[in-house]
């Protein structure tokens, strides 16, 4: 049955994918299509009576919970007297998009919001802007986490001479081309990657269980849009090198011998199609549970962490964090092995996630759910990665623990124009001179990722000097992104 047919039976949109997965299993036991249709109609009419159905019990339980939530909806929308406190970070050369500012202002009007912050790379997103940080009271907002759950950065410094970027570029290029995949649906078809994350509990929710095979097929791949894998030069001075070698400051501390320039590998991607499916499902569920929200707040619908729906999403999000980290681990591990290289330093961080944290908010210590949608954790001495563009630096930073920003920083330079406008405005001939000047070899990318569509990363870093300190610099030299024409996942 198609989604539209299921919706006509009364199956909510956010449950149609689950039902479509379950129907073949029911049919395999001998049920006819007509029997399935009649059973589903009965479940919609009285979900409580079918909680233990061997084929569609999970659907009945979801419907029953949604019916209970429907009773709670009747209270309606109440606008708070004043928005929760929030602050924006900008600078002399940083112009924050008014729509992004408005989005954060709206988010701070939610009854569950405790505080907010807007980073200098901010641009418009669904509900919460990219570069938005939001602290809530025991509630999680799927769209404030983002569509690409647990999108993250990872940098490893390798024990190869940086001159290999010029003397052996083909060897480095081959390592990238062989050891990861780019694009919508990209996967390892003939030799799937293996990682302990696939032994985790993929039965945490019905949604996760049915996504396990898809996740395994895409394990170790890089996706589309602004996701990339790059080789480049990592530069530190003596003080930075010593600081990076402090035990606990990085995954593999104590390896950098001192100041200098090193060869490094940098990657940016998230939880791939699996995370996107989870984000879509729970975002729609949250919106269905909060029909009282006005149109401008619709994408900020939340799930109470005390509810079954909230716990399901939190479990799914947490697993996607493990899964995204595994993707990066495999990319770096296989490329290093391909080159016969040893990893000297390893730094990584999420920037589309929600954390349970304690912060000083309005003068008092509060436990909060902190959403960082395109924002980097910047707790005191916490290392993070803030990239620029394919032709500009990426900075390794150390957090200053600023509670006004909910201990956060930007996650990149931030777009200055939409993908559509970028494709209408630029041609590859516009970028080639700059790429040559910066000694960048571009293997593939879309026009919507040219350097000109991003803010100046140095201006962005300068605008958050009270949030982070620079701990190192990475300059891209060999860059691979999804080929032109791929739909972005971010």
List the topology elements.
Blueprint (H helix, E strand, L loop, with lengths): L2 H7 L6 H13 L4 H13 L11 H16 L13 E3 L9 H10 L5 E11 L6 E7 L2 E2 L1 H4 L6 E7 L5 H4 L1 H11 L26 H4 L2 H7 L9 E9 L1 H7 L15 E10 L2 H18 L13 E2 L3 H32 L3 E8 L1 E10 L2 E10 L1 E3 L5 E4 L7 E6 L8 E3 L8 H7 L2 H10 L3 E4 L12 H6 L5 E14 L9
Parallel strand pairs: 1-2, 16-17
Antiparallel strand pairs: 2-3, 3-11, 4-8, 5-7, 5-9, 6-7, 6-17, 10-11, 12-15, 13-14, 14-17
Helix pairs in contact: 8-13, 12-13
Uncertain ranges: 69-75, 246-254
Structural class determined from secondary elements:
alpha+beta
**DSSP strand content:** 15-25%
Helix content: 25-40%
| Oligomer status | single chain
- Kindly state the number of beta strands: 17
Tally of separate helices = 16
Radius of gyration: 23 Å
Let me know the average pLDDT: 90
Q: What is the CA–CA distance across the termini? A: 30 Å
Biggest β-sheet description: 8 strands, mixed
Shape: globular
Written account of the structure:
The chain is α+β, with helices and mostly antiparallel strands. The chain is built from 16 helices and 17 strands. Strands 5, 6, 7, 9, 13, 14, 16 and 17 form an eight-stranded mixed beta sheet that branches. A five-stranded mixed beta sheet has the order 1-2-3-11-10. A two-stranded antiparallel sheet has the order 4-8. Helix 8 packs antiparallel against helix 13 (308-339).
Structure at a glance:
The chain is of the alpha+beta class and 490 residues long. It has helices at residues 3-9, 16-28, 33-45, 57-72, 98-107, 142-145, 164-167, 169-179, 206-209, 212-218, 238-244, 272-289, 308-339, 419-425, 428-437, 457-462; strands at 86-88, 113-123, 130-136, 139-140, 152-158, 228-236, 260-269, 303-304, 343-350, 352-361, 364-373, 375-377, 383-386, 394-399, 408-410, 441-444, 468-481.
């Amino acid at each position: 049955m198609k989604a539209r047919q299921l919706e006509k039976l009364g199956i909510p949109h956010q449950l149609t994918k689950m039902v479509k997965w379950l129907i073949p299993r029911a049919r395999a036991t001998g049920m006819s299509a007509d029997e399935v249709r009649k059973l589903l109609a009965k479940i919609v009419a009285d979900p409580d009576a079918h909680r233990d159905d061997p084929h569609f019990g999970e659907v009945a339980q979801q419907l029953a919970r949604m019916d209970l939530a429907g009773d709670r909806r009747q209270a309606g929308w109440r606008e708070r007297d004043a928005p929760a406190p929030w602050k924006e970070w900008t600078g002399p050369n940083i112009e924050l998009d008014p729509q992004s500012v408005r989005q954060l202002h709206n988010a701070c009007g939610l009854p569950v919001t405790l505080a907010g912050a807007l980073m200098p790379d901010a641009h418009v997103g669904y509900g919460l802007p990219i570069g938005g940080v939001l602290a809530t009271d025991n509630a999680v907002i799927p769209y404030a986490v983002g569509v690409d759950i647990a999108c993250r950065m990872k940098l490893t410094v390798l024990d190869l001479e940086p001159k290999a970027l010029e003397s052996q570029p083909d060897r480095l290029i081959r390592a990238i081309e062989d050891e990861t995949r780019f694009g919508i649906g990209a996967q390892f078809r003939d030799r799937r990657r293996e990682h302990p994350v696939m032994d985790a509990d993929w039965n945490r929710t019905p949604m996760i269980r049915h996504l396990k095979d898809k996740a395994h097929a895409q394990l170790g791949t890089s996706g589309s849009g602004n996701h990339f894998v790059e080789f480049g030069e990592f530069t530190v001075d003596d003080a930075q090198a010593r600081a990076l070698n402090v035990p606990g400051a990085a995954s593999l501390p104590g390896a950098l011998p001192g100041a200098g320039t090193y060869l490094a590998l940098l990657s940016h991607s998230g939880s791939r199609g699996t995370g996107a499916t989870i984000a879509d499902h729970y975002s729609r569920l949250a919106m269905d549970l909060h029909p009282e929200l006005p149109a401008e707040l619709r994408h900020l619908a939340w799930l109470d962490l005390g509810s079954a729906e909230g716990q399901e999403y939190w479990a799914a999000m947490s697993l996607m964090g493990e899964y995204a980290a595994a993707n990066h681990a495999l990319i770096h591990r296989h490329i290093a092995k391909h080159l016969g290289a040893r990893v000297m330093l390893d730094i990584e961080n999420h920037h589309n996630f929600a954390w349970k944290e304690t912060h000083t908010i309005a003068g008092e210590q509060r436990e909060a759910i902190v959403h960082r949608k395109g924002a980097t954790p910047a707790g005191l001495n916490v290392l993070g990665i803030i990239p620029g563009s394919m032709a500009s630096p990426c900075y390794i930073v150390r957090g200053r623990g600023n509670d006004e920003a909910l201990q956060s920083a930007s996650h990149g330079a931030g777009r200055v124009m939409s993908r559509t406008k970028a494709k209408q405005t630029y041609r590859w001939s516009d970028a080639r001179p700059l790429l040559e000047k910066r000694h960048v070899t571009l293997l593939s990318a879309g026009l919507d990722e040219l350097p000109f569509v991003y803010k100046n990363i140095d201006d962005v870093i300068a605008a958050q000097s009270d949030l982070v300190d620079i701990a190192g610099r990475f300059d891209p030299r060999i860059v691979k992104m999804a080929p032109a024409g791929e739909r972005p996942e971010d």
